[in-house]
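Reminder to self: tokens first, then the designed residues, so the page reads top to bottom the way the pipeline ran.
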């Protein structure tokens, strides 16, 4: 299935910004694309997703107003712009695609294919 490769993670101080990128092996506008994070000792959280077909976007309350999901269809790349980062944002961030076309949102079961992840560490 689709291959996803994340990049752009790193260590920043609280209040800083990072932009994560996800390179996909294929583009299909009918599949939901999202970013999922998991910190040590924490449950997985879908922080943002987008349905390319109609440009719908979804954000978890924990990141709303600070993170922005976007894409470049020609480059088959998904982005997550993260601003005003907080220590609680520290986690491994994964790019993921929906298992079936037509459904998008923040429910974890929507997503099947995952990348290997990129680490984001925010210090205060």
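Designed residues (124 positions):
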């Amino acid at each position: 299935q689709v291959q996803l490769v994340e990049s752009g993670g790193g260590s920043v101080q609280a209040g800083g910004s990072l932009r994560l990128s996800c390179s996909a092996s294929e583009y299909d506008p009918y599949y939901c694309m999202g970013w999922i994070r998991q910190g040590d000792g924490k449950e997985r959280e879908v922080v943002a997703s987008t349905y390319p077909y109609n440009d719908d976007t979804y954000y978890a309350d924990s990141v709303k107003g600070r993170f922005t999901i976007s894409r470049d269809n020609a480059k088959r790349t998904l982005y997550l712009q993260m601003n005003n980062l907080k220590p609680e944002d520290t986690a491994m961030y994964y790019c993921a695609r929906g298992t079936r076309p037509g459904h998008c949102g923040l429910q974890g079961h929507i997503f099947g294919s995952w990348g290997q992840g990129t680490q984001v560490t925010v210090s205060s």
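Residues 37 and 43 are 8 Å apart (CA to CA).
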